[in-house]
Each structure stands twice: as structure tokens, then as C-alpha cells.
Design a protein that fits this description.
Number of helices: 13
Order of helices and strands: HHEHEEEEEHEEEHHEEHHHHHHH
Distance between the termini: 54 Å
Shape: globular
Strand order of the largest sheet: 2-3-4-11-10-9
Helix content: 25-40%
Structural class: alpha+beta
């Protein structure tokens, strides 16, 4: 028997998520505003601070930590055009020869900072900035406070705060140029697209896993672009993203064989691709279940075919050398089992398991939602940590 999904069920789920997990649209906007103010106050002449990750996007989920991008202002990466020369700046250029799409080597063009050469390796008479040495050097010059390297980040002793050490290129890079004209839909809007292009891209110190040049490579980061895209989401789109994250963290990751195969970034990428395909009018509260199932079905498809194309650089298959062989089979079996339950697969999460029929016609007063929003902000562990 087919599962009947009525607008009332979708509306009930939407209200439940607002009431118990994500908060209202106003709550999300409040988090984003506070992040912007704090980032502006924390930035100075030497660095720009950008709150990233889920919290930077306005989502505070169970198990979330605080992700901060620390962008050096004394180092600049040039893509094609030559900037106005400033002798106090260290200049790098991209070298993508024999490097996987989405990654690059950074060649030193100029620096009067002799200590910077300690982060470089010489090859064929040219100096390349080592992502491994760069992270290690930051740890050495910092205080001995228990910080460790975790991927492209420096993690605090408590494991609560991740600093991604980042470099900026203010021009849009060639490998992502097709994104500008690819979409024939109205999303994202022209103004948003121009804002993304104007910002350029970031680079974080981590190479392609298994690459012979891994320690010399840097990953291209579109974190700011992704924040701008997510800020255009309707609240229903954001809720679908939250539901996917809940399924991943609470259900899929509970299986030891599936725990480390998927990450939130893959889910975000899937939402971006589907947002190009669907008109914004589809993403509405009384259709949230259909939207979520479309996203979940796409995830199953991606795993089945071992392909998850990067949103800005589709040539970068993020599942390559990861979701393959036995790992793919185990994960696909898990996803197909969950998918067989339809939208009710979300009930396997203890955060949503008490979503009951009694909620479907139970009105939630706006005042109650407002009180919950305030309570969520006041009790926010991440917000407290971010401001200490």
C-alpha cells in the first residue's frame, strides 16, 4: 500500500522541527546576525574571521561544534590577474598540474618574510608551500595549550573548536568558471552569483588523500560561497538539510561499518544540486516530506553509482576512493533499508521518534515558538563558547 502523505502531515513535521530542533526562521536569522557581528569584531589587520560549518549557516544541531575560518591577510593567492604589488604581502600562485580537481599546489612568488620559507619545499628550483608544514608551523608558534591538527584545522584540547587556517584568492578560479553559467534555473539569483564571484575562493591546508603530493596540496574551499547559497534557502530547504544531517548522525553513523563513510558536506552538496532543479515554490512547509524524500532518494542514487560531484567543480567526484567496493555495498544496503520506510525513516532518530499523530492537528502558538527560540539561544553551548 502506498504511503499517503498529506499537506497536514508535512505541516505537522515542519512545526515539530521549528518547535523542538531547528527553531523558527527568525531564530536562524538571529544566529546568523550574531555570527556576523562576532566575526566583524574578531577580525583585525592581520586576519579575517569567518564562522563556518552548520553553526555559521544558522543551524545549531546536537553534536555540533564551532568551526572558524581564520584567513590570513598577509598572504594572497593570485589566480590569473596580477594584483597591485605590496611589499609587505606574501604572494602565491596556483599550480594545478597533475593535481586532482578541487585541489592545487601553491607556488611562492614573493615574500620578504624569511620565516615563511620554513613552510616551503623546493622542487625544480621553485618553492611550494607545504600544507603539512604550514599547519605544523602554526602549532609551533602558538602556546602549548593542547591544540592538535585535525584535517585542515587546528582543534582545541576540548575538541569543541576547529580553526581552519585559510588563504584567500579574490578572483574566481578557472576550474569553477562553468558554475557561473551552468544553471538555467532562477537559483541562485544573479545578484547572489555576483556576490559569490566577487568574494573569490579560499584555500585550506589539506591535500587529496593518497596523492603522492598530498602534503604539498591545498584544497579549494567555497565556504563563503556555500554560506551565501544557504542564506538564500527557504526555511523548508534548511529543514530538509537538517533532516538529512539527523538521519546521518543519529541513524546511519550508529552502524560501525557506515560511521565514517558519509559527511554533512556530501548532504549539503546534494541539496545544492536539487535546489538548481526545483523551483523555490516547491520548497514550502506543506511539502517538506516530498522535498526530503527527493533529497534522500538522490543520496541513495549517488551511493549506488559511487558518484557525488562537487557542486562548484563537478569533475571532483568526492566519492572516489571512498564509497567503493564493500564500503559502498554496506552503506547502500543501510540506505535502501531506511528508504523502504519512506519518510518514516526519520522516526529512527530519538530526536524525532516522539513526533506523534497528536501533533498533526495541534496548533503551536507563535508566542510558544518565540519563547523556545529565546531559550535555545540562552542555553546555547556553542554561543557561550564562541564568546568566551
Amino acid at each position: 500500500m502506498a504511503d499517503i502523505i498529506t499537506p497536514n502531515i508535512s505541516l505537522a513535521l515542519y512545526r515539530y522541527l521549528c518547535h523542538n530542533i531547528v527553531g523558527t526562521e527568525e531564530h536562524v536569522n538571529t544566529i546568523r546576525l550574531m555570527n556576523t557581528v562576532r566575526d566583524n569584531l574578531s577580525s583585525d589587520k592581520s586576519r579575517t574571521i569567518i564562522t563556518s560549518g552548520s553553526y555559521g549557516e544558522g543551524l545549531e544541531m546536537r553534536g555540533s561544534d564551532l568551526d572558524i575560518m581564520r584567513v590570513s591577510k598577509s598572504i594572497k593567492v593570485n589566480a590569473d590577474e596580477q594584483p597591485d604589488f605590496d611589499p609587505s604581502i606574501t604572494y602565491l600562485s596556483m599550480d594545478t598540474d597533475d593535481v586532482k580537481p578541487g585541489f592545487t599546489q601553491l607556488r611562492l612568488e614573493y615574500s620578504r618574510d624569511q620565516s615563511f620559507f620554513e613552510c616551503c619545499e623546493e622542487h625544480n628550483g621553485k618553492h611550494y608551500v607545504s600544507s603539512a608544514l604550514y599547519k605544523g608551523n602554526v602549532l609551533l608558534v602558538g602556546d602549548d595549550n593542547g591544540e592538535t591538527i585535525h584535517g585542515p584545522c587546528i582543534t582545541d584540547e576540548a575538541g569543541m573548536l576547529d580553526y581552519a587556517l585559510s588563504l584567500h584568492c579574490k578572483t574566481w578560479i578557472f576550474s569553477a568558471v562553468n558554475w557561473i553559467t551552468r544553471s538555467g534555473s532562477s537559483w541562485p539569483s544573479h545578484n547572489v552569483t555576483q556576490s559569490i564571484i566577487k568574494h573569490g575562493v579560499l584555500f585550506v591546508p589539506i591535500g587529496s588523500h593518497g596523492s603522492p603530493k598530498e602534503d604539498l596540496e591545498w584544497r579549494v574551499s567555497f565556504s563563503v560561497a556555500e554560506k551565501l547559497l544557504i542564506n538564500t534557502f527557504t526555511h523548508t530547504q534548511l529543514m530538509c538539510y537538517a533532516l538529512l544531517k539527523i538521519i546521518l548522525k543519529d541513524v546511519i553513523a550508529n552502524d560501525s561499518e557506515c560511521k565514517d563513510l558519509l559527511c554533512s558536506y556530501f548532504l549539503k552538496t546534494i541539496i545544492f544540486w536539487i535546489s538548481e532543479e526545483l523551483p523555490s515554490s516547491v520548497w514550502k512547509p506543506d511539502n517538506i516530506i516530498n522535498c526530503f524524500m527527493r533529497c534522500f532518494s538522490r543520496l541513495v542514487y549517488c551511493v549506488e553509482h559511487s558518484v557525488c560531484s562537487h557542486y562548484f567543480i563537478p569533475e571532483n567526484n568526492m566519492f572516489e576512493n571512498k564509497i567503493e567496493g564493500r564500503a559502498r555495498d554496506v552503506l547502500l544496503n543501510k540506505l535502501n533499508t531506511l528508504h523502504s520506510y519512506g519518510w518514516r525513516c526519520i522516526l529512527f532518530s530519538d530526536q524525532i521518534s516522539n513526533f506523534a499523530v497528536s501533533m498533526w492537528n495541534f496548533p503551536i502558538e507563535p508566542f510558544t515558538l518565540y519563547v523556545n527560540d529565546v531559550k535555545k539561544i540562552v542555553q546555547s553551548r556553542i554561543l557561550y563558547f564562541a564568546n568566551t
